[in-house]
Amino acid sequence: GPAIHFDIHGYTRHNVDNWLELGYNIRKSDLNAGVLDPELSSIKALASRSDKQFPSMVHGEDSLGKLVMEEGYRVSPHPSTPDPTRESRAGTTEEATSPDSG
Fold it and tell me: Which helix (H) or strand (E) holds 76?
């Protein structure tokens, strides 16, 4: 059956220590600009099976970030911090691997 793999990084070198960053293969610059294309993300199969809006799945009310935040962890992205430059240095899988990431 279907499975999903999440890219989760823990960091202690941010402005505020102990952040988790969720990677969806979305460039930081695209996440900050709200350019969210499910076809380019690592969760495109999940998005295709869901009736939820893709931005909500990435950093909204339907996001893994919201669930993690509700457990008491600092995480980006989540509904209060939809872009990674606001509170944490955050990045994504793509940022770590792409030479042209923003």
Answer: strand 74-76
